[in-house]
Specification:
Order of helices and strands: EEEEEEEEEEHEEHEEEHEEEE
Number of strands: 19
Mean pLDDT: 96
Number of domains: 1
Strand order of the largest sheet: 1-13-12-17-15-14-19
Strand content: 35-45%
Radius of gyration: 18 Å
Structural class: mainly beta
Oligomer: single chain
Length: about 270
């Protein structure tokens, strides 16, 4: 099998599912993905997860990891702090796509804060570390697990693929539209379609399947305002089985770490 190398261009996590992410210089990678990545989410009154599909104002919420708390800010709101470690208490049933699990409610103050920002009733919940949410067995092994991300622990994109896409657009889009964890440079456009593994000094990932994109990529990740691009253009040449593809979903082979500028071997 032929091997080649790429370099880590940037790293990103999104502590609250579908809210803004932030950049890292290095990341600890666990079984479920990057540490603190998508460990919280907002749910509606029925316990079903919310995303920018239904609540585009989630794109206006900033989330930063502090020493012992999430620091959260939103338009016209005083900042909110949420402890990193949940207090012991009862869990509530929640739904992420086809998965049902139990999660810790963060508290009434957080619920009121997010309900005001999103202009709809909602609750903030935290995934218990002990809860194992398995990856779809069609795409992983029995030991593979995922956080509150849509389906996989890690999402990889490449700078060259974005450059190629932007060459087709009247108004170029930034990489944050695609909400990756790892952005690599040094590959040809869409070379990631052929990868089966990607490995660094302290991390090995299995490339599981391409990432099917939804309307979230059409939303400005600072304002939540949507349009038609880049999904409309992507669909003209990156569609397979009625799904529009950009980036690759990946699964860690075990715990490890990764840093910006690290050289990775792909195969």
């Amino acid at each position: 099998m032929a091997h080649s190398s790429v370099q880590v261009a940037s790293l990103h996590i999104y502590p609250i599912k579908s809210c803004r992410g932030f950049d890292l210089l290095s990341a600890e990678v666990k079984r479920m993905g990057f540490a603190w990545d998508r460990r919280w989410m907002l749910v509606d009154t029925a316990g079903t997860f919310l995303s920018q599909r239904r609540a585009p104002r989630m794109a206006t919420i900033d989330v930063v990891i502090g020493m012992d708390a999430l620091r959260i800010s939103g338009p016209g709101m005083e900042d909110l702090e949420v402890p990193l470690e949940p207090s012991e208490g009862e869990t509530i049933p929640v739904v992420v796509w086809d998965d049902r699990l139990n999660a810790f409610p963060v508290g009434r103050d957080a619920d009121a804060w997010f309900s005001e920002v999103l202009r709809m009733p909602c609750r903030l919940v935290r995934q218990p570390e002990a809860h194992v949410r398995p990856v779809d067995p069609r795409d992983g092994t029995a030991d593979d697990a995922v956080s509150l991300a849509d389906g996989f622990p890690v999402l990889i994109t490449s700078t060259s693929s974005l450059v190629e896409l932007n060459s087709r657009l009247q108004d170029p889009v930034p990489m944050n539209r695609f909400r990756p964890n790892i952005v690599v440079r040094g590959a040809t456009p869409y070379a990631e379609d052929t990868w089966r593994s990607i490995a660094g000094p302290d991390l090995t990932l299995r490339v599981a399947k391409p990432c099917a994109r939804c309307q979230i990529v059409t939303k400005d990740q600072r304002t939540g305002v949507g349009g038609e691009e880049p999904l409309r253009t992507l669909a003209t040449y990156r569609q397979k089985d009625h799904k529009t593809l950009f980036g690759q979903n990946a699964i860690p082979d075990g715990p490890g770490s990764i840093r910006v500028d690290e050289v990775l071997t792909v195969a």
